[in-house]
Amino acid sequence: MSVIHSPIELRTSPHIRRPISTDVIMKNVVYALLPLVAFAVYAFGWSALLLIATCTAVCVLCEHAACALNKKETTIADWSAVITGILLALTLPPAFPLWMAAAGSAFAMFVGKLMFGGLGCNTFNPALVGRAFLQATFPAAITTWSPAFDPQRFSNCFPATLTPPFLKPLSALLTTDGLSGATPLGAWKFDHVFNNSAASLFMGTTAGSAGETSAILILLGGAYLIYRGMMDWRIPAGVLGSAAALSAIFYFADAGKYPSPVFMLFSGGLMLGAVFMATDMVGSPVTSVGVWIYGALIGCVTIIIRLKGGLPEGMMYAILLGNALTPLIDMYTQPRVFGAKKKAEAKP
User: Fold this and answer.
1) C-beta atoms surrounding 168 within 10 Å
2) What is the largest CA-CA distance in the chain?
3) Contact by Cβ (8 Å): 23, 77
4) Cβ(245)–Cβ(300) below 8 Å
5) Which one, of 291, 162, 163, lies nearest residue 236 by Cα?
6) DSSP labels, 87-147
7) For residues 341 and 329, what is the distance between their CA atoms, to the nearest angstrom?
8) DSSP assigned state of 256
């Protein structure tokens, strides 16, 4: 009796281990961001909700319009535009004027993503491209902060939220004095005041951008994505580890002048950027050594800008620099092909 063997199918790498499509990954990123969105609304009220809704809606509409103009099937179903809108909103002050947020969202989509060819082709994180545009165009508005848990946050919007285009707000957060509305980083940088405990920074009871205040929710969202195999844990580990190490060197050299590593890790946008932005699969390296170099670069540049630069925060610039250097990092950290000779041996 003859035995019939089924043919063996051989394929080249990469070998797909499980069928996870782009839209499934993106949807899970949205799920991981939802607790941050809910906390932002809880802490800052209607202004935060309108800000997140505006940025998300404009990003989705811009992507749909671009597809329609190019006579292509719409790509909004991959959820990437939703993520860009949510992330951009979470990096902005809760009382940021909505018309400015809409302009930044359109810039993020058209210049940061669609101009490069859409999802998978963009060099830089689109949400950070939009924020960089807003930082350069509206520097006063993007550094105007409102306090968390204002008693009136669900009865009225902050005055700046509904400001008409190109006009000044009707009033300027009259219920907020300069210190209570300042972010922890801003208070330390410009007033040399440490007015926040580690617990308040960790839980998110401080002023700041809409989604950067609660470190615990950011870490939980990252842990969910790592558990699902949808995030490279080495990138946030490299960012946070290098930031902690460098800030510890400065702190132990002069504890009276420089803040502690705990303060540096849990304040500002370091945690949000490390978990949800530096890990962008398009803008980050793919080699095993490269992801560590990329993470360490972002963490160190962020701390250097904070401690030695003129701005209290440097996470946005650090990630954009890391995105720009990703092709170079990948090129120089490629493992040698098995069986191939070194260049020096191949050429006499």
Assistant:
1) 13
2) 92
3) yes
4) no
5) 291
6) HHHHTS-TT--HHHHHHHHHHHHHTTTGGGTSTTT-SS-HHHHHHHHHHHH-TTGGG----
7) 22
8) T
Residue 100 has pLDDT above 50, yes or no: yes
Q: How confident is the model at residue 198 (pLDDT cuts 50, 70, 90)?
A: confident
Rg (CA), the chain: 22
CA distance 115 to 144: 31
| CA 161/CA 159 separation, integer angstroms | 6
Say what the pLDDT of residue 172 is.
44
What residue has token string 């947020």? Answer: 101
Q: Is the backbone peptide bond immediately before 164 cis, with ω within 30 degrees of 0?
A: no
**Token reading at 47:** 């202004």
Mean pLDDT of 107-131: 90
Model confidence, pTM: 0.87
pLDDT tens-digit series, residues 136-185: 999 988 988 888 888 888 988 888 888 888 776 654 444 443 334 578 88
With tokens 């949510």, the residue in question is 86
Domains of the chain by residue range: 22-332
CB 126 within 8 A of CB 112: yes
The mean pLDDT value of the chain amounts to: 86
- How many Cβ atoms sit within 10 Å of the Cβ of residue 55? 31
The 8-class DSSP code of residue 17 comes to -
Determine the residue type at 29. Answer: V
* 164 to 54, 146, 167: CA distances (angstroms): 14, 19, 6
Residue 134: per-residue pLDDT? 96
Residue 202 parent element (H or E) = helix 198-203
pLDDT tens column, 53-76: 999 999 999 999 999 998 888 888
Tell me: the pLDDT tens digits for 218-268? 999 999 999 999 999 999 999 999 999 999 999 999 988 899 999 999 988
Q: Could you please report the per-residue DSSP string of 76-89?
A: GGGSHHHHHHHHHH
From residue 79, give the alpha-carbon distance in Å to each of 60, 65, 73, 96, 262. Answer: 9, 15, 14, 24, 34
